[in-house]
Amino acid sequence: MSLFKNLFGGKKEDPKPFSRTPMDLDLGYIFEYDMQSWEVMAVYEYDWGDEDFSKEFKVSDGQNTYYLSVEEDDEIEMTWSKKIPLRSIEGPIAQQIEEDERPPETIVYESRTYYLDEESAGYFHEKGSDENAWAEFMVWDYYDKKEEYQLSIEQWGPRSFEASHGKVLKNHEISDILPREQ
Q1: Where in the numbering of this chain does the DUF4178 domain appear (predicted)?
Q2: Which of 180, 182, 172 shows the shortest CA–CA distance to 39?
Q3: pLDDT per residue as tens digits for the range 91-113
């Protein structure tokens, strides 16, 4: 029956329904994480220079908004995070960055100590917006001792900072990736 439908204009089969990875996510896609369905609401692209790119997806379950960051190095690396107020991190982070032009080596958030892992300058772009609208920024990534949790501090201008906190995900934690129905 499906051959008959395909020959005469029936619904086409999805070419790779079970082989999608988080790198395949795009606007409107739906996936499962932590026994909940999430929809991609926005796609952000990052250019780190030297042909190094990553993506971040603003996702929602209809009530909550999170960010899924995905980067392919030797393997897919992912973090699941939420924006947090910079002031919720112990210490005068913004002041130290302004005075020393770098953040502290360790920071404390919700009684957990995080260690500076990487400092990166890059460019940010929201997919679907003006292709020439790339914003320059700086980011400092911190991890706890077990590298289970991540905290990032971003600087978008002389006195413009954002922070996010989340956890490091394993590849199998994101599943059932489906495109938006056409």
Answers
A1: 27-169
A2: 180
A3: 898 888 888 888 999 999 999 99
What pLDDT shows up at residue 128?
A: 87
CB 123 within 8 A of CB 135: yes
72 vs 30, 39, 63, 117, 120, CA distance in Å? 20, 21, 29, 18, 16
> By C-alpha distance, which of 44, 8, 20 is closest to 174?
20
68, β-bridge pairs: 57, 80
Cβ pair 121, 136 in contact under 8 A? yes
* Cβ atoms within 10 Å of 29's Cβ, excluding its own: 19
* Residue position matching structure tokens 């892992």: 117
Element (H, E) at 152: strand 149-157
The 10s digit of each residue's pLDDT in 44-92 is: 999 999 888 999 999 999 999 999 999 987 888 999 999 999 999 998 9
Find out whether 43 and 27 touch, Cβ atoms under 8 Å.
Answer: yes
Q: Which amino acid is at 155?
A: Q
Q: What are phi and psi of 15, to 5 degrees?
A: -65, -25
Give the per-residue SS3 of 35-90. CEEEEEEEEEEEECCCCCEEEEEEEECCCCEEEEEEEECCCEEEEEEEEECHHHCC
